[in-house]
Write a structure and sequence with these properties.
about 350 residues, nine-stranded mixed beta sheet, alpha/beta, Metallo-beta-lactamase, Chain A
């Protein structure tokens, strides 16, 4: 009798473990696009619970952007942010870092190394960031470096003006769009030094190139496409026309584009149209209605997180499965759309 009971209990225990494992496997990777009014703050939470924040928004405004980031982090169940990646040292990307570190623990800072721009506020913003790094964990990232979030992987595509030297697995095809791309001017600002990354979770692929400008974007796409295709494209440089080169965007063939624009920053019609016309694009979503544009160059209202210029800073949330399927959710109006695995 006892052996029979043991076998039954063993089956129950095994089934319980299997159900738990299945539940864990179904837990999505989450990406929160936090509204920092035309800057960037993109929070990634891996199924393992590890977290990565890309950029920290603006300084000042009574800590507005840091508060918004922490609010989203708390709603995601985070007590700390394991990694904070700074794409470059402009104030709308690194400026909020000191205020953020006052409000939530940060494990490790990731960046491209020294500041390369000596104009405007950039040296001062970098000096503030360097003070923050005193006694903190820091890792300087280079093209080709990887960061493992257990079941998700972040691969560095660009950093400090350099890019990956060979194509990623499955990429490397000649890009016919290069024949029609202009020879864009050299950009000497920190934008061209942006730490650009590709996040993969199973078959799901998400690209974020910070504020990389067109000449550097084209280097990733021409003469061969070094990246391949992606599921989700965060429009580069908030949807400004100094970025979002057609030869790159159309070669990436994103299914969905997320525009981290502000009410009066980004969402420029030229860039918007380039992304909109990308082959295979199913949808665009925006953090703000672009008030300086027109209705034809804004997405439908239910795909916009903040429809008014004066807003509470609503975010967009993306949940991805390893089979490549994903859902975008707009908490402002509860709109959501699921994109099936391909």
């Amino acid at each position: 009798m006892r052996p029979l009971i043991a076998r039954v209990l063993g089956v129950v225990f095994y089934c319980g473990l299997a159900l738990c494992s299945a539940a864990a496997a179904r837990k999505p990777l989450e990406i929160y696009f936090v509204d920092v009014e035309g800057g960037q703050a993109t929070l990634i939470v891996a199924p393992s619970g590890e977290s990565l924040l890309i950029d920290t928004g603006w300084p000042g405004f009574n800590g507005r952007d840091a508060d918004r980031i922490v609010s989203v982090a708390n709603s995601a169940g985070l007590k700390q942010i394991d990694y904070v990646l700074i794409t470059h040292y402009h104030r709308d990307h690194v400026g909020g870092a000191p205020q953020l570190a006052e409000r939530i623990r940060v494990g490790t800072f990731l960046d491209h190394g020294p500041n390369r721009e000596d104009q405007g506020e950039t040296p001062a913003r970098f000096a503030d960031y360097e003070k923050l790094l005193t006694g903190a964990n820091r890792r300087v990232m280079k093209p080709g470096d990887k960061l493992k979030l257990k079941d998700a992987t972040l691969t560095v595509l660009t950093a400090d003006g350099e890019h990956i030297g060979k194509a990623l697995h499955g990429a490397g095809q000649p890009n016919p769009l290069c024949a029609f791309e202009k020879d864009w001017p050299v950009d000497s600002t920190e934008n061209a030094r942006s730490l650009g990354t590709l996040l993969t979770y199973g078959k799901f692929r998400f690209i974020d190139l910070g504020d990389l400008t067109k000449k550097k974007e084209v280097e990733l796409a021409c003469p061969d496409n070094l990246v391949g295709t992606v599921d989700v494209y965060l429009t580069t440089h908030h949807g400004l026309d100094q970025s979002n080169a057609r030869a790159l965007v159309h070669a990436l063939r994103p299914r969905v584009a997320i525009m981290n624009n502000g009410a009066r920053k980004g969402g420029i019609p030229e860039a918007w149209q380039t992304v909109h016309d990308s082959p295979g694009l199913e949808d665009m979503w925006q953090l703000h209605y672009a008030v300086q544009s027109d209705a034809a160059h804004n997405v439908a209202a239910d795909h916009i997180a903040n429809s008014e210029e004066s807003c509470q800073g609503a975010y967009l949330k993306l949940s991805a499965q390893p089979d490549g399927s994903f859902t975008v959710f707009n908490p402002r109006n509860q709109a959501s759309k699921t994109y099936a695995a391909r």
